[in-house]
Design goal:
Blueprint lengths: L22 H14 L3 H9 L1 E3 L1 H5 L12 E8 L18 E9 L6 E5 L5 E4 L2 E2 L5 E2 L2 E5 L2 H19 L5 E6 H10 L3 E5 L3 E3 L4 E3 L2 E5 L1 H9 L9 H22 L5 H14 E4 L5 H10 L8 E5 L2 E4 L2 E7 L1 H12 L32
Parallel strand pairs: 1-14, 2-9, 4-15
Antiparallel strand pairs: 2-3, 3-4, 5-8, 6-7, 9-14, 10-13, 11-12, 16-17
Helix pairs in contact: 1-8, 1-9, 2-8, 5-6, 5-8, 6-7
Length: about 375
């Protein structure tokens, strides 16, 4: 069993209720507009959103956009310590992508595959425009999350495209403060942990059993790495996958999507904390995206972690398994489900967060 008291979840089974992280607020936008119309509420939520012109910054030197009806989104969790986020650590003047997922929505928008990229993955970072001016030269062996520190969202997208060979159609980012407010708007998220988790660095202190995590606790839960497994980012990723399932269970339990008042609170919190590419930076655009994906159920989503191994020169870093990583990205470029063979031999598949070695969720069949 894992930290949630669940039996191991098979590759792509959907039984853990994995779903698109962005789906919570996208769905809220769709139903909110349906319930309130496009009046004052629309203007208020629209004013909350922030957009970045990724296409304008990157120009034409990008992978070719697949003309097959599929959709690819780079989803990041921002590790910035500036402003209100300073409560989560000292501000050293930089920001990092604490969580990174490539969301591939397959042709017909009836299936999706979500690939988590460990933040400590060693990879090639192409030259990027620096956030403070000038150009950062290419680096052959950079950590994936350094790209965000160097050049912000545009550099993160450029690095992801270089790694995957896939053009990112959209970009979405959520920050620390916004995450806590979103969870609190839901009244907390209940989940059960089978084993205690104690991490002084993330300030997470959970005994085995059922808990209702508030925003601060939820943030600590999805960020903890020193209190689970081998202390690497791989254990944290598995907890993130599980938390998404618990979050959506909470939405269903509360009937958020049928309660206009609570729905507004959730949508308001979500729009304040999310940053998107400029094409998505309106409630109308997000609603359209949500409508296009509304037929995707939990059983239609495969979640996996990029196949990696620990870096022999630094156990705190990982490097992609060449064969497995190529299988993952080749499958998505061709709009196919990722074969189970892609995660064979991956450090992530050997059990990130489970001390008993429970396999982490793997690729779809």
């Amino acid at each position: 069993m894992d930290y949630f008291g669940n039996e191991p979840v098979g590759s792509g089974s959907g039984r853990s209720r994995p779903a698109l992280v962005a789906g919570v607020w996208i769905t809220a936008f769709v139903l909110l507009l349906g319930g309130f119309g496009l009046g004052v509420v629309y203007l208020e939520l629209n004013g909350n959103l922030k957009g970045i012109d990724i296409n304008g910054v990157l120009g034409g030197d990008r992978p070719e956009d697949a003309d097959n009806g599929s959709l690819d989104i780079l989803l990041l969790g921002s590790d910035s310590r500036a402003g209100e986020n300073g409560a989560y650590g000292d501000d050293d003047g930089t920001a990092r992508s604490d969580t990174a997922m490539v969301v591939h929505v397959h042709e017909g928008h009836r299936r999706a595959t979500v690939v988590s990229i460990p933040r400590d993955t060693r990879t090639y970072r192409p030259p990027c425009a620096r956030s403070d001016g000038g150009t950062a030269p290419a680096e052959a062996n950079a950590m994936f999350n350094d790209s965000y520190s160097v050049g912000g969202p545009a550099c993160a997208v450029k690095t992801a495209e270089s790694m995957t060979g896939i053009r990112m159609d959209h970009y979405m980012e959520i920050d620390f403060t916004g995450f806590t407010e979103l969870v609190d708007a839901l009244g907390g998220v209940p989940l059960t942990v089978d084993k205690p988790i104690h991490d002084r660095r993330s300030k997470l202190d959970l005994e085995a059993g059922r808990h209702v995590l508030d925003g601060e606790q939820s943030l600590a839960f999805v960020r903890t790495r020193h209190g689970v497994g081998d202390g690497s980012d791989l254990g944290r990723i598995e907890l993130q996958h599980r938390f998404v399932a618990a979050l959506l269970d909470r939405v269903e339990e509360l009937g958020v999507l049928t309660s206009p008042a609570r729905l507004y609170d959730v949508a308001d919190a979500a729009t304040k904390c999310v940053t998107t590419d400029s094409e998505l930076a309106s409630v109308e655009a997000l609603a359209g995206l949500g409508r296009s994906m509304r037929r995707i159920g939990s059983e239609d989503v495969d979640m996996l972690t990029l196949p990696v191994r620990h870096d022999p020169g630094d156990p705190n870093r990982v490097v992609p398994l060449t064969k497995g990583a190529q299988e993952v990205w080749t499958a998505l470029r061709a709009d196919r489900r990722v074969p189970a063979s892609a995660t064979e031999g991956s450090a992530a598949a050997r059990g990130g967060s489970s001390a008993s070695g429970t396999p982490a969720p793997g690729a779809g069949e």
